[in-house]
């Protein structure tokens, strides 16, 4: 929406209040990159991507509802593609920003989808009808 200073302030606040908010780090990095602070933006994007990947791995290893998260590995593959771009130093800003935006949307959708799958399969009777 073009309100980069306001967005930066909001994401910095979210990051400081919730150190494990990896999406806030990712979004902060995208805002910084678009606002001209490319080096810091890349650091934040990389931290956000690594944090999201680690979070998904931890969810798989340590939580029973992990099987409902990213079953097709789409999120993990997108994270790896973006990290590979950063690590190779072949960084195309617009491509990295588009990837970050896509990941943000997909994580938001995955929250809803994994919750629905969990409720259908664990709480409900598995027919999609919810409890009972």
Write the topology of this structure.
Layout: H1 4-17, H2 22-34, H3 38-62, H4 74-88, H5 93-123
Helix pairs in contact: 1-2, 2-3, 2-5, 3-4, 4-5
Describe the structure concisely for a colleague.
Helix content is 74%, strand content 0%.
Please describe the structure with a list of short key phrases separated by commas or semicolons.
132 residues, mainly alpha, 5 helices, 0% strand, disordered C terminus
In words, what does this structure look like?
This protein has 132 residues and is mainly α. 74% of the residues lie in helices and 0% in strands. The chain has one domain. The protein has 5 helices and no strands.
> What share of the residues does DSSP label as strand, in percent?
under 5%
Shape verdict:
globular
The total of beta strands comes to 0
Estimated helix fraction: over 70%
Structural class: mainly alpha
Mean model confidence by pLDDT? 81
How many domains make up the coordinates? 1
Span from first to last CA? Answer: 44 Å
H/E topology pattern: HHHHH
Unreliable segments of 5+ consecutive residues: 126-132
Strand count, sense and closure of the main sheet?
none
What is Rg? 17 Å
How many helical stretches?
5
């Amino acid at each position: 929406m073009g309100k980069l200073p306001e967005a930066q302030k909001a994401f910095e606040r979210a990051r400081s209040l919730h150190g494990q908010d990896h999406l806030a780090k990712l979004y902060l990095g995208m805002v910084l990159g678009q606002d001209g602070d490319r080096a810091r933006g890349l650091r934040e994007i990389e931290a956000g991507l690594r944090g999201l990947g680690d979070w998904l791995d931890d969810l798989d290893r340590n939580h029973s509802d992990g099987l409902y998260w990213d079953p097709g590995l789409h999120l993990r593959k997108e994270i790896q593609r973006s990290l590979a771009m950063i690590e190779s130093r072949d960084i195309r800003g617009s491509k990295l920003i588009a990837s970050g935006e896509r990941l943000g949307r997909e994580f938001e959708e995955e929250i809803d989808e994994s919750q629905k799958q969990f409720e259908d399969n664990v709480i409900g009777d598995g027919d999609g009808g919810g409890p009972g």
